[in-house]
Design goal:
9 strands; alpha+beta; 155 residues; five-stranded mixed barrel
Length: 155
């Protein structure tokens, strides 16, 4: 689907775009049981469901994609960030203490093309649509051209 045609609430949307901006990853603590964000109080980490826990580290990465019809902020949670970067948890978490090491990674991502599948959501705070990414793969323009050339009855 083209970015200009996206609507809030659409699920399973597939789009192909070029990365034009990458933001530094943001790190936060989560419950090891349910994966939800935990709160810290007096040195203890608390999950609403599992009470006091020893948290695990998680992260989110945002990037702007352009498909020629518009741009959209894509939100990559931990697993999708790993797929996007081709890295494991420990390596990504390593950027937390030295974001300067992430600069080359950001540069390498610029102008790369990706095919993303996800859910479109309105970010009320910034009044813009965002794509919560569920699947990431490097785009193959040749494959996409072949798909588009097939008669619609075979798609």
């Amino acid at each position: 689907k083209k970015i200009e045609a996206l609507k809030d609430g659409e699920e399973g949307i597939e789009l192909m775009g070029t990365v034009i901006q990458v933001f530094d990853p943001r790190f936060f603590n989560t419950c090891p049981e349910c994966g939800k964000k935990v709160t810290e109080s007096e040195g203890a980490f608390n999950c609403d469901e599992h009470k006091t826990v020893t948290p695990t580290q998680s992260y989110v990465l945002n990037a702007i994609l352009d498909d020629g019809t518009g741009t959209i902020r894509a939100v990559f949670w931990r697993n999708q960030t790993n797929h996007l970067l081709g890295k494991e948890d420990a390596e990504v978490i390593g950027y937390k203490n030295d974001l300067s090491k992430f600069e080359d990674v950001k540069t390498d991502l610029l102008v790369e093309q990706f095919k993303l599948v996800g859910r479109v959501k309105m970010n009320e705070m910034f009044n813009r649509l965002e794509l919560n990414v569920q699947l990431v793969e490097k785009a193959s323009p040749q494959e996409e051209i072949v798909k588009m050339e097939k008669p619609s009855s075979t798609l």
